[in-house]
Amino acid sequence: MYSFCHHRFPIQSILRGLRLTTSSHPLRLAIIAGSTRPGRHARTVADWVAGLSRNRPAATYEVIDLAQVNLPFIDEVLPPMAGQYSQPHTVAWASTIQAYDGFLFVTPEYNHAPPAVLKNALDLLFAEWNDKAATFVSYGFDGGIRAVEQLRQICGELKLADVRASLALRFGTDFEGYATFNPAAEREADLARALDDLEQWAQALRPIRHPELIA
Question: Residue 14 above 70 pLDDT?
């Protein structure tokens, strides 16, 4: 599992030890809408996250909608760790993911797990996910928490550092009539905490991938 023990590696200490040229190289973070099912809430939730993150000074956020990316299920001969992608859609997906410093995954919960389309998007690549940060906004009758538990395990294997703070949206409190997204007032503060952690860890991990940014 790729994770950091917070009491052994305090994030603020890591950040104080780095002098990064953040003004000329701002963080770029992706909000990945992880469901393609008709009638899904993933894009609505992803757009809500994007709206609330628009004025955050430390990073820019962009939505990636898997329904628009339209990836086929894995059709590569070699495993992703080989880093030798043969299919044009895999090469394009790798180029997209390589450009980001971290990710926020928006996921529903299907049968106590994340959607297959999201798992497939993760499984198609390896190095492009490495040494970056991730958090989650999940939703469902129980907040989608079991989907996030599985995603954390997957992130560990992909060397994606999943931060502790995340957001669980429940149909009973954050969706009118279990159908229309209308988050409770406190959800904005919950999301802000998750984004704070995501940005801090994305910044702390960046020199591993880009040592030239260390002054």
Answer: no
